[in-house]
Each structure stands twice: as structure tokens, then as C-alpha cells.
Amino acid sequence: SSTFYGNEQPTDSMIRRRYFHDFYLTYAASKRVNLAAVFDVGKQRSVSREKYDTWHTAAAFIKYKLADKWSTTLRAEYYYAERGVLIRSIMPAALDTDFRVAGGSLNLDYLPTNNVAFRVEGRYLNGMKGVFARTDNADNRSYGNITTSIALSF
């Protein structure tokens, strides 16, 4: 696990202290199956400075090794942010309802060498009250994507 305490605001902004802790548990169920559970929790002084806003997230992972250089991982996740704390892209007003999103993803990884990884991932998220609003649907509550990536390590 890991902990952070301090100010995360820009230098020209009012100081708002933040506390954050990350808990995680991993388990190698077999040579081919790895499991992981993650829980993060944080508190940050609200804009009004009268109290602290809370956020937390949880995720569970199941990774299965298909072959020597191939693996797949299934992830389920949940995210909650009181009054949208830490959600800069939607900037909810102080009286807005809490931000909640749940979803999952499935990826396929190929590692041709020890320092190169290719990934294809599909992800789906479902939220409340139009958190994924679009110009054609202000109440849109879901979001999905397929992404690819290449990672190099040195």
C-alpha cells in the first residue's frame, strides 16, 4: 500500500490539503492465473473549505496467461467522487450530485520481447445522470472504447 498527504493545487491557488491511501492485494492462483484487488480512498478539503470531500475506487483483476507471450486480463471497476472532487473535465457545481461510475474492460497483451508490449483493450463504463454527455444526448450514461497501445521499457 501507499499513502500521500499534501497540497495538490496549482501554486497560484488556495491550499487544499489532500490525503490519499492505496490498498492492494495480489495472489498468484496458479502459473497461469493471477488475481488482484485494489481499493483507493482519499479526502480533500472542499472548495468552500468547510469540510472534506471524499472519493474512493475499487477494482478487481483476473489475468490469465494464454501462452508464453500472450495474456488476457478482465477488470471490473467502480469509482465514486463526492460532488465530483478530482473530476476536472466535468467540473460539477458544489451542489451537484455525487459522481459514480462502474464498468469493466478486457485486454489482450502480446510481449514479443522483455521490453516491448502490445495491448488491445475494450472498455465499457456506465455512470449516473449524464456523466458522459454528448451534444446529441445530454443524458448519456455510458461510454465504450477500444484502444491499442505499444509500451517500450528501457
Number of strands: 8
Element order, helices and strands? EEEEEEEE
Distance between termini?
26 Å
Gross morphology:
globular
Total count of helical runs of at least 4 residues: 0
Q: Rg to the nearest angstrom?
A: 19 Å
For the residues shown, what is the average pLDDT?
86
Taking the sheet with the most strands, its summary is: 8 strands, antiparallel
- Low-confidence runs: none
Tell me the helix content: under 10%
By secondary-structure content and strand pairing, the structural class works out as mainly beta
Beta content comes to: over 45%
Q: Would you kindly provide a brief summary of this structure?
A:
With 154 residues, the protein is an all-beta fold. It is 0% helix and 63% strand.
What's the arrangement of secondary structure elements?
Blueprint: E1 2-7, E2 17-28, E3 33-45, E4 52-67, E5 70-81, E6 99-113, E7 116-127, E8 142-152
Antiparallel strand pairs: 1-2, 2-3, 3-4, 4-5, 5-6, 6-7, 7-8
Structural summary, described in words:
With 154 residues, this protein is an all-beta fold. It has strands at 2-7, 17-28, 33-45, 52-67, 70-81, 99-113, 116-127, 142-152. An 8-stranded antiparallel beta sheet has the order 1-2-3-4-5-6-7-8, with no helix packed on it. It starts with a strand and ends with a strand. The model has no long low-confidence stretch (mean pLDDT 86).
